[in-house]
Amino acid sequence: MGALAHRARGQKQKAAFDALSPHEQRQARQPGLILFSLFVVLALCLALGPVLAETVDVKYRGPVDLAKFDCTGELDSSVVKRVCYNQENSYLLIRLKGTWYHYCAIDRTTVDALLAASSKGSFYNQAIKDSATGGKFGCRGRPVPPL
């Protein structure tokens, strides 16, 4: 199709579109708008997917994906800032100030008591920390769960 014929066809389409009522014009644009909206949503999902997956760097372990953990939000404690627990493996991740630590073979009752304690830092120091428990929940010498 030559340039002149192409231009004439475009003018006919524009004239036909202009002849439509405003309501009909909106309906004619709708499929394009729907496709564009779907494209934008898909692009956002693809871009934000990795952002929404949270990985933390655990001391003595390295990166751990929190997808398989039940995590608290930020806690109102000067020491214990966040707690994440994987009940299937009895595995605790705890952020103390700015550092993540891990504990193995820790029961749900102890984790619940930590979260309910009026002083989470004191509870951690007395009931979980290696130096207070003789390493009861420490991961040294125990298999660290593959997550």
Q: Number of DSSP strands?
A: 6
Shape: rod-shaped
Distance between the termini: 61 Å
Q: Helicity, in percent?
A: 40-55%
The secondary structure category is alpha+beta
Helical run tally: 5
Strand content: 15-25%
Largest sheet: 4 strands, antiparallel
Order of helices and strands: HHEEEEEEHHH
Low-pLDDT sequence parts? none
Structural domain count: 2
What does the radius of gyration come to? 29 Å
Average pLDDT number: 82
Task: Explain what you see.
The chain has helices at 3-19, 22-52, 108-116, 120-127, 130-133, and strands at 55-58, 62-65, 70-71, 80-86, 91-96, 99-103. With 147 residues, the protein is an alpha+beta fold. The protein folds into 2 domains: 3-52; 55-133, no CATH class. It has a 4-stranded antiparallel sheet, with helices on one face. Helix 3 packs antiparallel against helix 4. It starts with a helix and ends in a 14-residue tail after the last helix.
Layout of secondary structure:
Blueprint: H1 3-19, H2 22-52, E1 55-58, E2 62-65, E3 70-71, E4 80-86, E5 91-96, E6 99-103, H3 108-116, H4 120-127, H5 130-133
Antiparallel strand pairs: 1-2, 3-4, 4-5, 5-6
Pick out its properties.
4-stranded antiparallel sheet, 6 strands, alpha+beta, 147 residues, 2 domains, 5 helices, two-stranded antiparallel ribbon
Offer a quick outline of the entry.
The chain has 5 helices and 6 strands; from the N terminus they run H-H-E-E-E-E-E-E-H-H-H.
